[in-house]
Amino acid sequence: MLRAVLLLQLTLWVANIHAFFPWIACEADKSCPGKSRRELPGPAKGITLDLWHRGPDVNEDLDKRGSANGPDLVGRSNKYTVVKPLEPTAEKSAGIHQDGADYSYFVEAKFGSADKPMYMLIDSGAGTTWVMGSTCKSDACLMHNTFGPDDSKSLKVDDKAFSINYGTGEVTGRLAHDSISVAGMKLDVKFGLANETSVDFTHFPFDGILGLSMGSGSTDNFMGALMEKKLLDSRIFSVNIGRASDGINNGQVTFGGTDPSKYVGQISYTPVSPKANGDWAIPLDDLSHNGKTSGITGRLAYIDTGTSFAFGPESDVAAIHKLIPGATTEDKVYYKVPCNTDTPLTVKFSGVAYTISPKDWISKRDGSCQSNIYGYEVVKDQWLFGDLFLKNVYTVFDGAQKRIGFASKAPLPDVPKTIPVVTTPPSVTEGLGGHLPTASPLTPSDGSASSPAGQQSDGATNGGAPSSTPKHVSPADQLESPVYVSVLCVVAVLAMVA
Fold first, then answer.
1. Is 286 in the active site?
2. Residue 172 — pLDDT band, cuts 50, 70, 90?
3. Is 304 a catalytic residue?
4. Overall average pLDDT of the 48-53 stretch
5. Type and span of the H or E element at 142
6. Most buried residue among 157, 181, 360, 363 by CB atoms closer than 10 A?
């Protein structure tokens, strides 16, 4: 099977690569701390993902993009499409942009003395923050916004190098010092200035990665730096990720607390496992489908904003798909499911169940559908849950108490369901997108306006609102968003612990 996989991988690699699945990176010049880290030991350990939906190609005819039911997809000045979010509804918050195909989610950051705008992937699985440098001549850098001495009088570049391998990408460069402004907070930090990037980065709009793990990489830990500068009262950030097919991008990251307007009911918390070695990983209770449990126990789930889908041990993934009528597989890695499947999957943490919409766990192509749950151990014997899950919940990463919280997402705001796709660098797009009339106050770091600090929800309701199960969207028209303009095979070389 491995030979067949590698042959397919090489075939698709030659054809083109249109996916990026970053997660915890390992510094190339040192070993990863702990065996749970997600390392890239070499291409032979990779697998090929036939991903059926994607955003528009950067070379597509701009006149052919868009849909009456979704945002018009026209090119940014550097030919990347970016779906602009609504205005933030809480202080110390930033709207989360996305690529229009639910693959990557990023915020606008301003770099240096001139506040040059750059798009940064929000990555809870990365400790290193870096941005593409102006001296970089790689294809990806030539297609993105870059940052360098001509952009800032305060930039200082070190002689020390940094190098990182991701699941499907690699960057190398020099360490640098300058100011970064995110969500209205400006601070001087050490970050990576890439002078070489792999071709994988050519296919997505973000210009760098904002590392939000609990641990540190080659650069300053961003959350740690915010705390050190006393810009936050608590080491916590909360994420609300929007789904492109919903027609409204209300994605938002809030630093230092939560935004009560983005969730309903209580936040249920699960402590980060001491076995996670500083990563955002929590014990997984079980996965189920249509009321039938798979019996999965004793696993950790890594919660990663920088990963698009979900990956788990082969036996676990087989167990969950065994519960799905009509699911088939040839290799126990990829699973096909009937296209009339309209039942959510259910994942349980600390006794509380959360649903994953078929919009997210199924990809559709011309009458053939594939599960986005893959039988592959990115982390040995453990699970990796990315945006496939996070689009269905409001998520709180609480570094102060070392826990992760989930809550039911609030209903979408009552605004016109058309969010412009910006076509120019961030500095030119101010004023686009929908606006909400008022901003909600930032909830203190106890995690919830309706739940005492440190208290875990037991599933009780609050004011009639369900406290644990996210709102499930109707399955009508749920399997294929109109922004998924065309179809290409893509390759992802996944990390695996040696």
1. no
2. very high
3. yes
4. 34
5. helix 139-143
6. 360
